[in-house]
Design goal:
30% helix; alpha+beta
Length: 324
């Protein structure tokens, strides 16, 4: 198979689906990929250059900020603010939306990102990642709450970088899901997973069962049906890693609301929306705690949270049937 780079792939997809594209999107992806390479380099050397452990600060989510969190966030914000095609950005680590440039100079894209998902696992050398969600706004569009906080179905693209045994990029522009593995010998992400499709049925059930006692009776009943039905339990505790395994092998992931997090714990804009976009493009389903499509939720603010259920189509339908 020809070694197709991610930029070549993006170009070919644009020629096929957006022949009048201006090149802004390719420029954005180029800087996003460069950010991931810089973060990946630091992740692989984290134990050698004193960027393990916490900073002593608490982020807007009420969580301990890790040194690598802080570094990854700084890299992403710097590159996205200076790539020339972004008009606003939101980071899971920042309290407010960041508007970039003046109305006459700005680009046409809004990006939301979780700079380092799974950072609580950093010191244990568990796979972590960067998740991104991209929206397009038209020229001269006022950056109001309504124009920026849109439902996930309107995403122009979404994806993630997984920093594990190898560094992998998975992305979609709404025309299938594609995976690329970073070849450090040439410094390029090369196509390794062409047109990914999740199996309709899986054999893995992924959930934090330590929270079982805090779930609703319906969520407990649904979990019981998979545990007692012979599904193997798999839970990393790093969302991007759990998602990647589910995408490739099938099965189901559940992070329901509980007595402590009545609306759910995962972030709609930074985690649930981009991953739901990918899951649906791969033939799976992604729902909230009410059994509704995640991509139809209109965010109330940039840190809106949601319950999150995704995976193989038949497995998710089985889970949802408990609520009917």
């Amino acid at each position: 198979m020809a070694e197709i780079s991610v930029i070549e792939h993006i170009h070919s997809m644009q020629l096929k689906w957006s022949p009048t594209a201006t090149g802004q999107f390719t420029s954005l992806l180029h800087d996003l990929i460069l950010s991931a390479k810089i973060i990946s380099r630091s992740v692989t050397k984290a134990g050698l250059v004193d960027i393990l452990g916490g900073t002593g600060n608490i982020n807007v989510q009420g969580e301990q900020v890790q040194k690598l969190d802080d570094f990854a966030n700084s890299v992403m914000i710097y590159r996205m603010k200076n790539c020339g095609v972004v008009c606003a950005l939101g980071s899971e680590e920042e309290e407010e939306l960041v508007v970039v440039g003046s109305p006459k100079e700005r680009g046409n894209y809004v990006i939301f990102f979780d700079p380092l998902d799974g950072s609580s696992n950093i010191d244990a050398n568990v796979s972590i990642g960067t998740i991104f969600s991209i929206y397009r706004v038209e020229d001269d569009t006022e950056l109001t709450k309504e124009n920026v906080l849109r439902k996930g179905a309107e995403q122009a693209a979404a994806g993630y970088f997984l920093y594990g045994p190898s560094t992998i990029m998975v992305y979609s522009t709404g025309h299938g899901v594609y995976g690329f593995t970073l070849d450090p010998s040439v410094g390029e992400f090369l196509l390794s997973h062409d047109n990914i499709k999740i199996p309709e049925n899986g054999k893995y059930f992924s959930a934090n069962l330590a929270n079982y006692g805090k779930w609703s009776e319906q969520d407990q009943k649904a979990a019981d049906s998979f545990v007692q039905g012979g599904y193997s339990l798999r839970y990393v505790g790093s969302l991007v890693a759990d998602f990647h395994r589910t995408l490739l092998y099938g099965g189901i992931f559940s992070y329901p609301a509980d007595s402590k997090n009545a609306k759910g714990k995962l972030r709609l804009l930074y985690e649930a929306n981009p991953l739901s976009f990918l899951m649906e493009q791969a033939g799976g389903l992604a729902l909230n705690g009410s059994g509704d499509r995640v991509l139809e939720i209109v965010p109330e603010h940039i840190h809106t949270r949601t319950a999150f259920l995704f995976g193989s189509k038949n497995d998710v339908e089985k889970y949802r049937s408990v609520f009917e």
